[in-house]
């Protein structure tokens, strides 16, 4: 689906990770969600929120993207 089409389908993805005490690790994971396999930023992917709980050492990163881009990211993992 082209990004120029009206009615672009968006989806949100919640990444739950077992890390909150090392902020740089959480930030690097959030940055990686924005990049393709060549290290270039996807223009249709955004990090909406990062919530970290240091007591439980857990973080949730919320990303939004076109459905097609999320499928691509899942297939890269």
Automatic annotation (TrEMBL):
Q: Which domain of life is it from?
A: Eukaryota
List the molecular function annotations (GO) for this entry: folic acid binding; transferase activity
Ranges for domain Formiminotransferase N-terminal subdomain: 11-72
Q: Which InterPro entries match?
A: Formiminotransferase_N, Formiminotransferase_N_sf, FormiminoTrfase_cat_dom_sf, FTCD
Q: What is this protein called?
A: Formiminotransferase cyclodeaminase N-terminal like
Q: What's the source species for this entry? A: Piliocolobus tephrosceles (Ugandan red Colobus)
Species classification? Eukaryota, Metazoa, Chordata, Craniata, Vertebrata
């Amino acid at each position: 689906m082209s990004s120029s089409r009206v009615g672009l389908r968006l989806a949100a993805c919640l990444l739950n990770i077992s890390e909150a005490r090392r902020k740089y690790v959480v930030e690097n994971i959030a940055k990686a969600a924005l990049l393709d396999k060549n290290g270039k930023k996807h223009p249709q992917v955004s990090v909406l929120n990062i919530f970290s709980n240091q007591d439980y050492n857990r973080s949730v990163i919320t990303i939004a993207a076109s459905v097609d881009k999320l499928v691509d990211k899942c297939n890269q993992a």
